[in-house]
């Protein structure tokens, strides 16, 4: 399952990660305008076959931190190796309770939902043979 190319490709799509807690941020801060830094707390990775694994972002060669740049409509993530990934945000929607983001990278789709009140985040990234669900949090950069 640790095919670096597959995981690295998903890392940007899934690039959202969480070790920061955004409890002190106000709802106004999560307005889809101010850039956010997000960190992955828990990750579940599944392959097309038996079983899924749970762990941290580094267990799956995914970046732990990423920056969401709303002005330029992209997500930046840098792996421990220093390799930078950039994924364009293709769709975004601001609802009363969440910021919803979607994109495509390396033939894989990703979606992110960020709670506008707490900054809690869930990201999914899927391809034909592997998928990730990432739970984390964001705060204003």
Beta-strand share of residues: over 45%
Element-level helix/strand string = HEEEEEEEEEE
Tell me the major beta sheet. 10 strands, antiparallel
Q: What is the total tally of β strands?
A: 10
Low-confidence stretches: 1-26
- Average pLDDT number: 81
Layout of helices and strands, plus pairs?
Layout: H1 4-14, E1 36-47, E2 52-55, E3 65-69, E4 74-78, E5 84-88, E6 91-94, E7 98-105, E8 108-115, E9 120-126, E10 130-140
Antiparallel strand pairs: 1-2, 1-3, 1-10, 3-4, 4-5, 6-7, 7-8, 8-9, 9-10
In short, what is this structure?
By secondary structure, the chain is mainly beta. Helices cover 8% and strands 49% of the residues. It is built from 1 helix and 10 strands, in the order H-E-E-E-E-E-E-E-E-E-E.
Structure description:
With 141 residues, the chain is mostly beta strands. The protein has one helix spanning 4-14; strands spanning 36-47, 52-55, 65-69, 74-78, 84-88, 91-94, 98-105, 108-115, 120-126, 130-140. Strand 8 (108-115) and strand 9 form a beta hairpin. The radius of gyration is 14 Å and the shape is globular. Helices cover 8% and strands 49% of the residues.
Highlighted features:
10 strands, 8% helix, mainly beta, 10-stranded antiparallel beta sheet, disordered N terminus
